Amino acid sequence: MTNARRIYIAGPISGAGPNALDRFHQAATQLAAPDVVVLNPATLPPGLQEHQYMDICLAMLRTATDLALLDAWHLSLGAQVEYHYARKLGLPIWRYRHPGELVPKHGSLGDHTKVLNYGGSSPSQRSFIDGGIVPADVFIWGSES
Q1: Residue 27 structural domain
Q2: What 3-state DSSP class applies to 95?
Q3: Which backbone phi and psi does 37 adopt, to 5 degrees?
Q4: Are 21 and 42 in contact (CB under 8 A)?
Q5: Beta bridge partners of residue 114, listed in sequence order
Q6: Cβ contacts of 144 within 8 Å, gap of 6 or more
Q7: What is the CATH classification number for the domain harbouring 64?
Q8: Whole-prediction pTM value?
Q9: For the chain, how many structural domains are there in total?
Q10: Alpha helix (H) ranges present in the chain?
């Protein structure tokens, strides 16, 4: 899987309520595919301090090819750090919307560009809109969160 896409999920965990980890796990399940490695910080063990989690998460982000932002990501200082670091790394940044939809997000205004599409022109090509295949010329118009 050397050519696999590696998607790091960012969003609020600390202080985000009892369902925070569930949102990460649900996104990871829906983004998983044979040609995708999902980097899910919600799988890290409990008991570390926030700065230790950030050290691990930034290392995970450095190995990513894409960043997927969960709703309310901007309310999390850690996710804000991950967002800005991903921009510095030049990673494509996407907004994850349930169920399994990734909408492009670039800069602070969210450009309206193409849907994330996996597999190029191969028959296994896939995007994450209702789990179906979407042609590369389909556009999604998203609002800024």
Answers
A1: 5-127
A2: strand
A3: -105, 120
A4: yes
A5: 139
A6: 108, 109, 110
A7: 3.40.50.450
A8: 0.71
A9: 1
A10: 20-31, 50-62, 77-89
